[in-house]
Amino acid sequence: MKKMILVACFLILALSACGSETGTTSSKASATSAPTATPTATAKPTQPPKWTTVQKFSGNGTKKTAIFAVPDDWKILYSCTGGDFEGFLGVTVYDSQNTYIDGAITATCKAGSTATTGETEEHQAGNVYLSVDATGDWSLQVQVLK
Questions:
Q1: How far apart are the C-alpha atoms of 76 and 87, rounded to whole Å?
Q2: pLDDT tens sequence across 69-85
């Protein structure tokens, strides 16, 4: 009888140990094997920046523009005509404290009604103005990347 009780106890312990081990293993397996789906946001396509005119100036002869703000990368597009004779266009960049920054443009303007055109890129940010010296008609466009 003692033998039967020992065998029964042994069987009960063996079965309970197997049951708990199986339950633990299967719950771990199901927890690690099920992948979770994470939603992904669809990115909106971004357009590359393009050069955009933010200031326009025109005149004949000498002129200083008003002070305006520029980023660290901007450019000046210019156009000039000499009239009856060959002309000249010079544009100098100054900061708002009247400190010389750059001799941006030195151009010879063709005689007649055909315009001489060009551009120059500048690389200094801040508040600036342009000092224009010319012997004919001229126009300037200040462009920035937007």
A1: 19
A2: 999 999 999 999 988 88
- If one counts the domains in the chain, the total is 1
Given the structure tokens 């771990």, which residue do they identify? 28
Q: What is the pLDDT of residue 48?
A: 93
Give the number of residues written for the chain.
Answer: 146
Token couple for 1: 């009888």
Across the chain, what does the average pLDDT equal? 82
Residue 20 lies in a domain: no
86 CB-side CA count, 13 A: 2
Q: How many CB atoms lie within 10 A of CB 32?
A: 8
Query: Global pTM?
Result: 0.68
Which CATH number fits the domain that encloses residue 64? 2.60.290.11
d(CA 132, CA 107): 12
Q: Is 41 a member of any domain?
A: no
Q: Please give the residue range of the domain that contains residue 123.
A: 51-145
